[in-house]
Amino acid sequence: MILAVRNLSKGATAKASIESSTKCSDSVISVWELDQCSYASVQSFASRVSAELERVDILLLNAGVCPLNGPWRHCERDEEAITVNVVSTFLLAFLLFPKLRETARLFPDTVSPGPTMTVVTSLAHTYTDFHLSRTAPEGQLFNVLSSPDRREVTMDDHSDQYFISKLLQIFLIRSLAAHCPVSKTGVTINCVQPGFVKSGIFKFEGTFAVAMAKLMIGLVARSTEMGSRTLVHAASQGG
Question: In this structure, what CATH number is given to the domain that contains residue 204?
Answer without folding.
Answer: 3.40.50
